[in-house]
UniProtKB/TrEMBL annotation:
This is Late embryogenesis abundant protein. One of its GO terms (biological process) is response to desiccation. Pfam families: LEA_2 (PF03168). Belongs to the LEA type 2 family. It comes from the Eukaryota. It comes from Actinidia rufa. SMART domains: WHy (SM00769).
Length: 156
């Protein structure tokens, strides 16, 4: 009897391991807003849902680093759900306070560009599997923004 249970466990584990899972990519990270309390970046995430039903997103955790230092980290709780058999575009706002911008200024001063790494964890609730986290990471190098670009966004 024990071998039958073990065979059933192995069969289910193999099926779960081989089932399709949603796939995600970071499509863009851009300056969204400049305000009195900080700068807001916007990370766009594209998620493909292979299932015919919607899948709830539990949370999105994020860490933004520049020059090896953590600039901002946090969690976006309950950002909605993934539409069935479609690609869902998620917008994750990253609010960077002015007090932390000193490390960005140091990075810009070295080579006139901003080197950053964004790490994201998209946690979804898959049927039969439970909570499943899709790890995402992107490294980019952007030109330092011209003062006109900052003024163009408007200080609020």
């Amino acid at each position: 009897m024990a071998s039958l249970v073990d065979k059933a466990k192995n069969f289910v584990a193999e099926k779960v391991a081989n089932m399709k899972k949603p796939e995600a990519t970071v499509t863009d990270v851009d300056l969204k807003d400049v305000g009195r309390d900080g700068i807001t970046y916007s990370a766009k995430i594209s998620v493909d849902n292979p299932y015919s039903t919607a899948i709830p997103i539990c949370q999105i955790s994020y860490t933004l680093k520049s020059a090896g230092s953590v600039i901002v980290s946090g969690t976006m709780a309950d950002p909605g759900s993934l539409t069935g058999n479609e690609t869902t575009l998620l917008d994750v706002p990253l609010k960077v306070p002015h007090s932390v911008l000193v490390s960005l200024v140091r990075d810009i001063g070295r080579d006139w560009d901003i080197d950053y790494e964004l790490e994201l964890g998209l946690t979804i609730d898959l049927p039969l599997v439970g909570d499943f986290t899709i790890p995402l990471s992107t490294k980019r190098r952007d030109q330092a923004p011209y003062p006109l670009r900052l003024l163009e966004k408007g200080i609020k």
